[in-house]
């Protein structure tokens, strides 16, 4: 069964990187096999959900045996294209943008911020680590030359939609949006919204009610 033959739920796809990181940790700890119960305990995801998620991709394990860790790792690496480096650009190099460039996805050596853009002349030309902040006017030229695949937006909300329009016209298919704006994009373009205010409100709610 392939992803082309059945529509994988978005919730399942969002959990795949969690599975990958956990299985990678097991592999590096010389663990040979793991059960859905052990995966459940380690990830805090119920085992029925894990088994259902895995079932979309065929027989990944055997009843009574569990899952071969090396096989799972290779599967997730291939499924998530972790054997390829995903190149990322960031637009908006204020405090948050600078922090993200400095962090530069050290959680994974398969994703890397390769370019940073801003419209402020006081910021353009500055270096954050090894990355020089480029003028946004050079955006299309640079992302094509560097084969950028994903863009992170950390700009004021008032500029978010116009920049999203520009980003999608350039052929970018993935946007990670740190602005409070809900972006309108063409079909085929995927946007993940990261609203820190909402995340904090949710955290406070759960702290008070659990």
TrEMBL record:
GO biological process entries: negative regulation of DNA-templated transcription; response to redox state
Keywords: Cytoplasm, DNA-binding, NAD, Repressor, Transcription, Transcription regulation
Gene3D superfamilies assigned: NAD(P)-binding Rossmann-like Domain, Winged helix-like DNA-binding domain superfamily/Winged helix DNA-binding domain
Localization annotation: Cytoplasm
GO molecular function: DNA binding; DNA-binding transcription factor activity
Cellular compartments per GO CC: cytoplasm
Ligand binding (NAD(+)): 92-97
DNA-binding positions: 18-57
Stretches assigned to the CoA-binding domain: 81-182
Principal subcellular localisation of the protein: cytoplasm
Matches recorded under InterPro entries: CoA-bd (IPR003781), NAD(P)-bd_dom_sf (IPR036291), Rex_bacilli-type (IPR058203), Rex_DNA-bd_C_dom (IPR009718), Tscrpt_rep_Rex (IPR022876), WH-like_DNA-bd_sf (IPR036388), WH_DNA-bd_sf (IPR036390)
Recorded family membership: Belongs to the transcriptional regulatory Rex family.
Function: Modulates transcription in response to changes in cellular NADH/NAD(+) redox state.
Oligomeric and partner information: Homodimer.
Listed name of the protein: Redox-sensing transcriptional repressor Rex
Organism (species): Macrococcus equipercicus
